[in-house]
Amino acid sequence: MLVGVAASALAASSGFPGRNGGIVFNSRRRGNVDLYLRRANSKVVRLTRSATTEEYPSFSADGTLIAFGRRPRAGTGDIYVMQANGTRLRRITRGGGDETVPTWAPDGLHLAYTAVGDDDEIYAVGVDGSGAVDLTNSPGSDLDPAWSPDGTKIAFASNRDDPTGEAYEIYVMDADGSNQVRLTHTPGDDGEPAWSPDGTRIAFVTGPGSRSDIAVMNADGSGLTTITRNGRSFEPAWSPDGTKIAFTSLVSNRGDLFVVRADGTGLQRLIRSRFDDGAPDWQPLP
Prior knowledge:
Strand content: over 45%
Largest sheet: 4 strands, antiparallel
Number of helices: 1
Strand order of the largest sheet: 3-2-1-24
């Protein structure tokens, strides 16, 4: 039982619509992958400086902390947390496999993440590193957790219903791992779910074969609409005010950051660089 998660619902709902801050992302700019912040004034600042790979950053609901996966050149990765300015780094997990792609509970007391191994699972853990629990516990591969803004649900991707183990669909479960329900039934792969700040919609990646585009659906799986059409877009992240979605798109086989309105209009490129940028997450401002 994840104590305190459901009790955060009222506080999370009262924070919408939020104010849009900077966008954190990972980038290979100095020989290895570090975390950077694109501020609202478009200035890019470096947050981490190590010989390890730091990736898949996630802002806490109050915008003061960033969780991320850190992986050494040799060995397995773990979840870390730091202040939004890159200071006060601390390690959260110490598992035997790769632990990555964290997502915050809105109460700020728990994290969910992917534990990669022979049987990929979604785990939850306290931010003090205690009480890790396997939430999905299925024979399939379960990836890409995303905690709902009211704290009661976690969306994720799974291949459990595909006999070939190739096609993933979007599922949702209660925050304690119960009531796992399939939401999408598309002919291609679906993954990387992201909740809108008001909890009514989910953005995700969908596409047949090697194509990938950003789609948006209602939180119950209805009303699916694809909002990009280039076949090279992934890693969606909602703006705190709920009007836009940042995402990664391949340009000349390199990741670049873009933003689009939730209805698919107003496409803009956020960063023009010769580097490989990706995995954006938008900072909520108090």
